[in-house]
Write a structure and sequence with these properties.
Strand content: 5-15%
Radius of gyration: 13 Å
Strand order of the largest sheet: 1-2-3-4-5
Mean pLDDT: 93
Length: about 120
């Protein structure tokens, strides 16, 4: 049901916030939102999202807020986020990202506030 709902969302180009927290969204489902170029807030907390899902976020050029609390995202997944020039807040509590990986991310993206 969720995957079908996301497919219909890809037509809503004016969408600025999407809350998928506490859902069973899968990495592949995020491919349906990669065209939402006006999206600036994305909640993925407490979902089974992994590094593979984050590669679908590269086109979200206006994304300012991303919550990955309680996900399986690791340091490798943070690499997919480095091109998000507008990103300001990234939440990584209880994810698999390490302090070392976060430090490298902050070097590349100094304007992002990372909360862990």
């Amino acid at each position: 049901v969720l995957d079908k709902a996301l497919v219909s969302l890809k037509e809503v180009l004016g969408l600025v916030e999407l809350n998928l927290a506490n859902t069973k969204i899968k990495d592949g489902d995020l491919a349906s939102i990669k065209g939402l170029i006006n999206l600036n807030r994305l909640h993925l907390e407490n979902t089974p999202i992994t590094d593979a899902g984050l590669m679908h976020l590269k086109g979200l050029v206006k994304l300012e807020y991303l919550n990955l609390y309680g996900t399986a995202v690791t340091d490798a997944g943070l690499e997919h986020l480095k091109g998000l020039a507008k990103l300001q807040k990234l939440y990584l509590w209880q994810s698999q990202a390490t302090d070392e990986g976060i430090a490298k991310f902050k070097e590349a993206m100094p304007n992002v506030t990372v909360v862990k």
